[in-house]
Every structure is written in structure tokens, then in C-alpha cells.
Write a structure and sequence with these properties.
CATH topology of one domain: Spore Coat Polysaccharide Biosynthesis Protein SpsA, Chain A
CATH architecture of one domain: Alpha-Beta Complex
Bound molecules: 2-acetamido-2-deoxy-beta-D-glucopyranose
GO molecular function, one term: hexosyltransferase activity
Distance between the termini: 9 Å
Protein name: Hexosyltransferase
Strand order of the largest sheet: 1-4-3-2-5-10-7-11
Keywords: Glycoprotein, Glycosyltransferase, Golgi apparatus, Membrane, Signal-anchor, Transferase, Transmembrane, Transmembrane helix
Structural class: alpha/beta
Number of strands: 12
CATH class of one domain: Alpha Beta
Radius of gyration: 22 Å
Family: Belongs to the glycosyltransferase 31 family.
EC number: 2.4.1.-
Length: 411
């Protein structure tokens, strides 16, 4: 079993150099009593920080933050100073949308007894014609362009004949916008395509966990006869052919929870980071092993267990850690790595894509490029099978991947 470099934690390597784990001081807890060692190391770090600042001046700040940045996505706001220092001087920073007092009981957002569905797709999941594989793309309300690109490309071939009477359905899951104009556009879009599920919650970045649990609610309620469910995002290219082959080659269709496994990830304590997780949200040192949220597949029996588990597991705003890590652990389910799932995409390599199941961070024009190239059977790749291991080494540009271990334990 292999572990991938971690997205939400700090234990990745940057351009081949191990920068982290950094000795992050613990977040101030509001409790003024720190032990003597804590005080000592605080003074030492303060001293060290001052010396480093004195010598390097402003150079230090960008260097530190580029190292902390989430894989170069560039959404980290510019710091005004070293954040570990400000964390000592200020109370623990609260997470936007999930402050200390916000309820994390999913029941109050999911309303398991109520019908929270605002928009339903056309008869996708009648009991007599349930799909073998249901792919639900979590999409933002205003991402109509992304949805159209997916409909025009990898989702367009998911009719029965193409997959040899294996039925595949692709649906989009959205929450509601606070802007009624956008909600009306979604209504029109669904009248045209009939492939949208809209659930009753505000579609915001910090509500992504609510979205994923709504997904489980909708599917277990409306599509219980499907065999497999895949959760993915609207910036993903899914090679449905390869996915079907991978699923068909499994001995049993139950007890499945597969994707790109991430092990030993540690919560990020820097409030400026996109994936900041305050101690009050998660107090353990490492996350349980989880699957990257860019694409994971489960059998429907697992979906039912995860949904039930979610209703009694306190919410964590990182949906993948929450669903495939915390809820899976509570339901005694083990997420399993499959080498076809990747979540990092640096350079398009069509021979690699030909053998992969997922590709990440694909914009709408790239979506068409990949689709057209993969459709064109003239592109021949070296007959030597492009092994999936090979793909990791090439495409995970920023990181170096831990060596594949022979046993099933994550290193
Ligand atoms: C959070 O709860 C505590 C105790 O219940 C209360 O004193 C505090 O004012 C609350 N904070 C906010 C921001 O509501
Ligand atoms: C839930 O509400 C939606 C939208 O009003 C409707 O289409 C759907 O049939 C309802 N589901 C159930 C199980 O009543
Ligand atoms: C479709 O099914 C037939 C007969 O089971 C098999 O020979 C063929 O290879 C299948 N095609 C695909 C694309 O899976
Ligand atoms: C609502 O969305 C529409 C369409 O994107 C936009 O033109 C309008 O300015 C938005 N209204 C508000 C209040 O944000
Ligand atoms: C979702 O996010 C919005 C805005 O951040 C917030 O107002 C709302 O309460 C959140 N939860 C739900 C269930 O919509
Ligand atoms: C595939 O290759 C053949 C022979 O090289 C060529 O005639 C044909 O136009 C090519 N097809 C496409 C779609 O490029």
C-alpha cells in the first residue's frame, strides 16, 4: 500500500528538499499555563526568530510562507510577519465559518429526517435502472463552464453501449447560492440537462464537508441500488473506461473504499494557510489515513455506513479527512490506495493519462485537449506498459513520493 504526499498536512517535500515538518509551536489554547519546556522553547524560538529576522530581514518571510503554501496554489494571503510569533501574542485564530462555538453536529445541517433536495436530476436512479457506477461531481454554483466542459468531454460517453451495458451516470451536486440570480441559472441549467442535484445549504468553501455528507444522504436515499459511488470535483478529468476496468476487476463489489491514500498527515496550525485546522477542530497529532478528496470511490454499502457514521462524528471542515478518515475510522472501514488515482497534475502526459483514472486541476480547455487526444486512437504509447508507479515519479513534481512498501502498512 502506498501513501501519497499529503495535501492538508505539513509533511510533504518541496522540490525534492525536505523542508518540513517544521517545529511549529503549539497553538495558544487560551490556557495560560504552559509547561517549563514550552516556555523554554518559546524563548529559544523567539530568540532564534529575532536573529533570523535580523540577518535575513524581509527575505525570511516570503521564504517561510512559500514553504508553508499549499503546493503552490497561491491562495495564501501575504503575511505581515512570522505567523508563529503572532500566534503566541494573539488568542488562537478561529476558523472562518467554524468558530469555536459553531455546532459541529451534522444533524443540524443535514436534517436526516427531512427532504432537503431543492433540485433533482431526471430519473437517474429509478429502482429498475440504477447505474453500476454513479459519479457525483461536487461543483460550485457559479461553475457552469466547468460543468459544460465535463458534459462535453469525459461524461459524454457514459451511455450504456459504450461501456458494454455497464451503466454509468454523472451528476453534479451543488448547494444554494445567496444570490438568487445564480440559483435561477442553476434551475434553468437543470431544466436543460437534468443532471443536477441541489441541496439545501449555502454553497461555500467552508461548507464542503456538509456538501459531501449531503452527497451521501442523497445517494443512499435516492440511488441505493447503485453498485459504486464516486465523489469527485469539477476540476477533475476522470478516465471512466479505466475506472470501470478497475472496478470490474475487483473480486467483490462490497466493502470498497479506494482512492489516493494519504498517510500520517498532520494538521496545519498556521491560520494563514488555506488548510488551517485549529486544535479545537482536531486535537490529535496526525489525521487518520484518508483518501484525497479529488476522487474516491466506494461501494454503496460503504456509503450507507459512512453516512450513518457522519451523523455522529463531529464535523471537520476538510471533507476528505472527515469522510474517508474520521467517519471511516468510526465505521471501522479502511481506505485503500489505488495507483490509478492521482491528485497532482503538473505536466500533461497522454500516455500517462491513458493508464490513469483521475487527473487533477484540469481547466476547461485542458479538459477538451485531453478528451480529444485520448479519443484519438492513433496516439500510440510505448508498448511497454506505462506503469502507474512511473506516473507518480513524473507527475508529482513538487514532492517526492515515499517508496512503495511491500506490506500494507503506511510508513
Ligand atoms: C462562546 O461560548 C462561550 C461560553 O459558552 C461564551 O462565553 C462566548 O461569548 C461565546 N463566543 C462567541 C463568539 O459567541
Ligand atoms: C424532495 O423534494 C424534491 C424537490 O421538491 C422532489 O423532487 C423529490 O421528489 C422529493 N423527494 C422525496 C423523497 O419526497
Ligand atoms: C463487451 O463484452 C464482450 C462480451 O462479454 C467482450 O468480449 C468485450 O470485450 C466487451 N467490451 C468492452 C469494451 O468491455
Ligand atoms: C448575482 O449573480 C449575477 C450573475 O453572476 C451577478 O451579475 C450579480 O451581480 C450577482 N448579484 C449579487 C448581489 O452579487
Ligand atoms: C455555510 O456557509 C455559509 C457562509 O459561509 C453560512 O452562512 C452557513 O451557515 C453555512 N452552513 C450551512 C448549513 O449553510
Ligand atoms: C491516423 O493515422 C493514419 C495513418 O497514419 C492517418 O491516415 C489518419 O488520418 C490518422 N487519424 C487521425 C484521426 O489522426
Amino acid at each position: 500500500m502506498e501513501c501519497r504526499p499529503d495535501v492538508h498536512g505539513v509533511n510533504f517535500k518541496w522540490k525534492g528538499v525536505l523542508l518540513l515538518p517544521m517545529e511549529l509551536p503549539p497553538a495558544a489554547t487560551g490556557n495560560p499555563i504552559h509547561n517549563a519546556r514550552g516556555k523554554m522553547s518559546f524563548i529559544r524560538r523567539l530568540g532564534l526568530g529575532c536573529i533570523v529576522l535580523a540577518f535575513l530581514g524581509l527575505l525570511y518571510v516570503p521564504a517561510y510562507h512559500s514553504a508553508q503554501g499549499p503546493l503552490g496554489i497561491g491562495e495564501v494571503t501575504s503575511p505581515s510577519g512570522p505567523s508563529w510569533l503572532s500566534r503566541y501574542l494573539e488568542p488562537v485564530a478561529e476558523l472562518h465559518g467554524w468558530t469555536f462555538n459553531t455546532s459541529r453536529n451534522l444533524n443540524s445541517y443535514i436534517h436526516p429526517q427531512d427532504n432537503t433536495t431543492v433540485l433533482s436530476p431526471d430519473d437517474s436512479c429509478t429502482l429498475s435502472a440504477s447505474p453500476y457506477l454513479l459519479i457525483v461531481v461536487c461543483s460550485a454554483v457559479d461553475h457552469q463552464k466547468q460543468r459544460i466542459a465535463i458534459r462535453d468531454t469525459w461524461a459524454s460517453a457514459t451511455d450504456m453501449s459504450f461501456y458494454n451495458s455497464t451503466s454509468v451516470k454523472v451528476l453534479f451536486l451543488l448547494g444554494q447560492s445567496e444570490n438568487e440570480t445564480l440559483n435561477n441559472l442553476v434551475l434553468e441549467e437543470n431544466q436543460e440537462y437534468g443532471d443536477i442535484i441541489q441541496e439545501r445549504f449555502i454553497d461555500a468553501y467552508n461548507n464542503l464537508t456538509i456538501k459531501s455528507v449531503m452527497l451521501l444522504k442523497w445517494v443512499t436515499t435516492n440511488c441505493p441500488q447503485a453498485t459504486y459511488l464516486m465523489k469527485t470535483d469539477d476540476d477533475m478529468y476522470i478516465n471512466v473506461d479505466n475506472l470501470i476496468k478497475a472496478l470490474k476487476s475487483r473480486q467483490r463489489s462490497s466493502d470498497t473504499l479506494i482512492g489516493s491514500l494519504i498517510c500520517n498527515a498532520r494538521p496545519i496550525l498556521d491560520p494563514k494557510n488555506k488548510w488551517y485546522t485549529p486544535k479545537y477542530m482536531f486535537s490529535e497529532k496526525t489525521y487518520p489515513n484518508y483518501l484525497s478528496g479529488t476522487g474516491y470511490v466506494m461501494s454503496l454499502d460503504v456509503a450507507v455506513k459512512l453516512y450513518e457514521s457522519a451523523l455522529s462524528t463531529p464535523l471537520l471542515h476538510l471533507e476528505d479527512v472527515y469522510i474517508t478518515g474520521l467517519c471511516a475510522r468510526r465505521a471501522k472501514l479502511r481506505p485503500v490506495d489505488h495507483p490509478g488515482f492521482s491528485y497532482a497534475q503538473r505536466k500533461l502526459d497522454f500516455c500517462v493519462l491513458k493508464s490513469a483514472i483521475t487527473a487533477h486541476r484540469v481547466d476547461t480547455s485542458t479538459m477538451h485537449t485531453i478528451w480529444n487526444k485520448l479519443k484519438n486512437s492513433n496516439i500510440t504509447c510505448q508498448e511497454k506498459k506505462v506503469t502507474v508507479q512511473h506516473r507518480h515519479g513524473r507527475n508529482f513534481g513538487y514532492f517526492s513520493v515515499k517508496k512503495r512498501s511491500t506490506n500494507n502498512r503506511c510508513v
